[in-house]
Amino acid sequence: MRLPLLTGLGLAILTAFPATALTIGVTPGVLADSVETAATEARAQGLDVKVVEFSDWTTPNLALDNGDLDANYFQHQAFLDNAVKETGYKLVPVGLGVLPNIGLYSEKYAALDQLPDGARIAVASDPVNGGRGLALLQTAGLITLREGVGVKGTPDDIIANPKNFQIIEIEGPQLVRALSDVDLAQGYPAHFVNAGRADIAGKALLYSGVDDTYFAIRFVAREDNKDDPDLARFIRIYQTSPAVREQIHTSYANDPALYTLPWIE
User: Which of 49, 96, 118, 152 is geometrically suited to a Cys-Cys bond with 39, CB 3.0 to 4.6 A?
Assistant: First the structure.
């Protein structure tokens, strides 16, 4: 049974439900749908699981830290690291989930080597996702980043840009809309699918992959319950269920280029 979307003001609602073996917090879309699929299997095996959807990216960690959730499943390691640094929450990853690949997209060019001198390239403006986009540009051979910055680079860390590309920073959710205004854009396939443009989602000129596991979604728990055997059991169900894999595949427009399952790669 999936509960309604909650915001920070709705946390008190959680206490209205009786104690259960596990309560997992998620965000809508592929994550919620795949966790609900696993929860259905878990219930059939005698493990009671409630799935609670949140409409923002702040409340799931607050609810977990408060003890209103047993785990959440919405964030990658980079996001968790930043959240822990800013809040002091005692939260830790306890299992790998789906890795949403990112891509480099263009509506004007069919190959990366067609990009002209001075082309405008859009990447995410936030430090968590922007660094990932710049790292993919480096993988594509378009720029070179300062040694050692990895996926934490910023435009200031670009030390070689032979074709003088203009790097434009745009809020991540707006990159889909910005695609028609630039020559190349970092993109999230799921965002294209959600915007009704699944045909674009599958046409990136380059995708990230399993080497990008730092950005795989994690099951996250508190330090005091990270060894909960019921939680470990649920994660095993999630990772081994054919029905979960089928749901993930469906959510990503049946295109395996749009995601990776890092626990089996």
Answer: 49
Q: Mind listing the pLDDT tens digit for each residue in 128-142?
A: 789 999 999 999 999
Cβ-in-10-Å burial (0-12, 13-18, 19+) of 102 comes to: buried
Bridge partner residues of 17 (DSSP): none
CA 129 – CA 77 distance, rounded (Å) = 11
Cα 133 to Cα 186: distance, rounded to the nearest angstrom: 6
22-26 and 49-54 beta bridge pairing: parallel
Q: Could you give the CA distance from residue 108 to residue 180 in angstroms, rounded to a whole number?
A: 8
> What's the pLDDT score for residue 244?
98
Which pTM value belongs to this model?
0.78
Q: At what angle do helices 242-251 and 30-44 cross, to 10 degrees?
A: 160
Residues 37, 42, 45, CA angle at the centre, nearest 5°? 135
- CA of residue 49 relative to chain centroid, distance: 22
In this structure, the number of other CB atoms found within 10 A of the CB of residue 76 comes to 21
Q: Which two tokens stand for residue 3?
A: 């509960």
CA distance 129 to 173: 11
- Using CA atoms in the order 135, 105, 56, 19, what is the torsion angle rounded to 10 degrees? -80
Tokens of 160: 């070689």
Delineate the domains of the chain, giving CATH numbers in brackets. 22-100+213-260 (3.40.190.10), 102-208 (3.40.190.10)
